[in-house]
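INFO batch 0412 | record 1 of 1 | parsing
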Amino acid sequence: MPALPFYIPLLFFLTAAATLLLFDRAVIHSQALPGKKAGSVFLAMIAWLAIQAALAVNHVYSADTRSLPPKIVLFGIAPPVLVLILLFATKSGRRFIDRLPLLRLTWLHAIRIPVEIVLLLLFIHQAVPQLMTFEGRNFDILAGLTAPFIAYYGVKKASLHRRLILAWNFISLALLLNIVIHAFLSAPSPLQRLAFDRPNIAILHFPFSWLPTFIVPVVLFSHLAAIRQLIRRQSSD
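INFO prediction complete | emitting tokens
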């Protein structure tokens, strides 16, 4: 990793903290879990962030970039994906998902704005390729910029048709998957296919390793939960 000004990791750290708090507020206001269990979810997320920080600080992800599957996939991305699968596959998990407040799930996507600012700063300091920024192939900032509008007028005021909110979630989900694929194919690994001149090395280092291992899974879950809720409401009308 090149040397970075202190404000770049600080901004990203605050973005990860905001993601944590916004999702925690959604869990608390869902009333799907009693107080103690809701607190356990928060502690589990803190523990996960601590584990990922320890792995990154000890160069588990960055020291060996030739392993297959990549270690960040094995130890950082696969576990959250398994949790998501379990939540949608089990009755108790689906009940939890259906009770999450759609308004808070939608507001959460505003954190994509500071994420994109951090990625641009990392590109300027040669830690990620240009294709991972909104100057390249990453248009995810559009989801962040429109999230407050959808949350306020679409969910809170109910001034927008439910199908429009559903379409926004699908489009924003596609934007997320687009940058995830580009990030994966530009990261140093045997599977790298893009950006060999300036690979995506930032996600292998602390605190930026929290992007694929925490922020992206939370954003992904928020979209999937919202889509499920909206489809269920539409089918019940």
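INFO post-check: DSSP finds nine helices and no strands in the chain.
INFO record closed
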